[in-house]
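Subject: Sanity check before I submit

Could someone independently write out the structure tokens for this chain? I want to compare against mine line by line before I put it in a report. The sequence has 366 residues.
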Amino acid sequence: MRVGVPKEIKNHEYRVGLTPASVAELVAAGHEVVIETSAGMGIDFPDNAYEQAGASILPDAAAVFRAADMIVKVKEPQPAEIAMLEPRHILFTYLHLAADKPQAEGLMASGATCIAYETVTSRSGALPLLKPMSEVAGRMSIQVGAHYLEKEQGGRGVLLGGVPGVAPAKVAILGGGVAGINAAQIATGQRADVTIYDINNDRLAELDMHFGSTIKTAFASKAAIAQAVKEAELVIGAVLVPGAAAPKLVTRAMLKTMKRGSVLVDIAIDQGGCFETSHATTHADPVYTIDGVIHYCVANMPGAVARTSAFALNNATLPFALKLANLGADAAMAADPHLANGLNVSDGKIRHQAVAEALDLPFVAA
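---
Independent answer below. Compare away.
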């Protein structure tokens, strides 16, 4: 199979779909790989590193799309990229369609087979291709939250961990999944006062056993969340419903009760966000303020640490990319029901039920 990697064109997105090491694995398996020139330059992978791994360098994205059978990306295709997709293509990337009906309709019109990293599952029901970026985003959320709490950034002027004689900042983490637990690890490392909220009592028990006395846990009732955001200096939105839009946990009314200069970080923004006042921002313009509360809602947070993220993502995606290249999409998904769960669009139809429900579009099983 001919596998193509275009340069990412989303705002301040420097990650790349395949690292040179991943290219070498595909070439060793008998496949051809074509890379758009400068696709990896943002994270110090020059064209000659790809050539040494066995790839061919093509001058632009159009050439990559024409040459390739499978397109491997990081972020959802932008309109110019969707226009280059054909029914013969396999698209393997993050899609996050539940919050993006225009993209879904564009992919349907293309006829391509579109497999989303974020809905591929594991035997345990986990999301192995979302996990590495959730780990990055969770850890980053505390880093950026602490930054925007600084007075110079418009924040409350609070040091996350406090100092002797001065209480630490209160951090409320909504969601005890991969992103939430990674946020908690960094927040407790900075000596913040951390509470994790979740609706799964078994998960809360696991978190209590994992962290011991370094965090608090609470059931995520509406009343508990309302009290949490009123008291917290930093709120991390880390909820996830696989394939579906994120629930709106923090309302505008709750926002009005927050301390001036507090910070919200919405990790769930790719799925529409879990704060009523969230809208997607970019690394070029990452924050905005409503009712005195700073919102950080960057839709590709891990792109800020692009080199770390690219390696972490490739570690997870390469086995699936190899399977798709070796067998073709239909045979690969027939052989692996967990990969088949990643199918979001094919033959002009929505193939993932949660996506279809979120977009109010017909669901047609593959």
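---
OP: Matches mine. For the report I'm noting this point. DSSP finds 14 helices and 15 strands in the chain.
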